[in-house]
Amino acid sequence: MRKFTRGRLFSFKYAFSGLRYVIVSQRNAWIHAVVTLLVVVVAALLKLTLQDWGILLLAIGLVWTAEIFNTAIEALVDLVSPQPHPLAKIVKDTSAAAVLVSAIVSILIGLVILVPPLVRALGK
Known about the structure:
This protein has a single domain, classed as Helix Hairpins. Helix content is 91%, strand content 0%. The chain contains four helices and no strands.
């Protein structure tokens, strides 16, 4: 049992190491971090319902997951194709497009959820 627990702890260590790498090495991750913090603060101030919180957290998780996968895919492409190659470009571009799509969808979700209570709060 001790070996199992220790193995799980190392798994978390590696996962947090990967997350740290994304945050330190990817400029867009800083944008995601700032927007995440802003959305969480605004949502807390607006006292959103649990349902709205759930949807916002899913949207935030979607963007972070896409960014993390994008970073992993770019590193893998650089490893297997250090020289520029048209297919490597397609892989990197489509991976980046996934982050863009997830960010746009998350922005739309955020607007749908946050704007109505924000307008009500500012109107009082």
